[in-house]
């Protein structure tokens, strides 16, 4: 079993909350282990399509939240989880993960500016010479970018 995976989620709005719309998980070779749309568990009041391009039609054909949650929980077991602002992703999945097994680029001082997290887009441009999130955010692209960053800097952990 590969000990490291990267995760990213896209969310839609339901009232004043964010709910899961898409989840992507990649292995250490940036191969997609999971790249699923998720059926909403509540009424969507803001699709946020301008951010990630996800529409009502995408979610209609999605997996059930319970299926996604169970599958991601299995993928997480015993693994190091890489990402950017992982607490938001884990919160929307309603899943715990041990702090000592998280590698979150939004929390590592080396990757911050003036004590604040830098965007994944900025980190990708600076450290990977790669342009991401041009047009829309894509959770698969973001998960892959986090894994590439991790592979470049894993010795810092």
From TrEMBL:
A single MF term (Gene Ontology): 3'-5' exonuclease activity
Subcellular location: Nucleus
Family matches, as InterPro entries: REX4_DEDDh_dom, REXO1/3/4-like, Ribonucl_H, RNaseH-like_sf, RNaseH_sf
Boundaries of every Exonuclease domain copy: 3-157
The keyword rRNA processing appears for this protein: yes
Keywords of this entry: Exonuclease, Hydrolase, Nuclease, Nucleus, rRNA processing
Gene Ontology cellular component annotations, sorted alphabetically: nucleus
A Pfam family that the UniProt record links to this protein: RNase_T
GO aspect biological process, one term: rRNA processing
Main location: nucleus
Family note: Belongs to the REXO4 family.
PANTHER family to which the protein is assigned, alphabetical: RNA EXONUCLEASE 4 (PTHR12801:SF45), RNA EXONUCLEASE REXO1 / RECO3 FAMILY MEMBER-RELATED (PTHR12801)
Main function: Exoribonuclease involved in ribosome biosynthesis. Involved in the processing of ITS1, the internal transcribed spacer localized between the 18S and 5.8S rRNAs.
Protein name per UniProt: RNA exonuclease 4
Organism: Danaus chrysippus
């Amino acid at each position: 079993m590969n000990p490291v995976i990267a995760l990213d989620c896209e969310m839609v709005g339901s009232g004043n909350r964010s709910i899961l719309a898409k989840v992507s998980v990649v292995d250490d070779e940036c191969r997609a282990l999971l790249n699923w749309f998720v059926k909403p568990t509540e009424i969507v009041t803001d699709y946020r399509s301008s951010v990630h391009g996800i529409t009502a039609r995408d979610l209609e054909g999605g997996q059930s939240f319970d299926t996604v949650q169970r599958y991601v929980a299995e993928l997480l077991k015993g693994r190091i989880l890489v990402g950017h602002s992982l607490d938001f992703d884990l919160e929307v999945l309603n899943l715990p993960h041990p702090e000592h097994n998280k590698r979150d680029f939004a929390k590592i001082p080396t990757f911050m500016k003036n004590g604040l997290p830098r965007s994944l887009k900025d980190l990708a441009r600076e450290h990977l010479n790669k342009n991401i999130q041009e047009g829309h955010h894509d959770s698969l692209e973001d998960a892959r970018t986090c894994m590439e960053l991790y592979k470049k800097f894993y010795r810092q952990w």
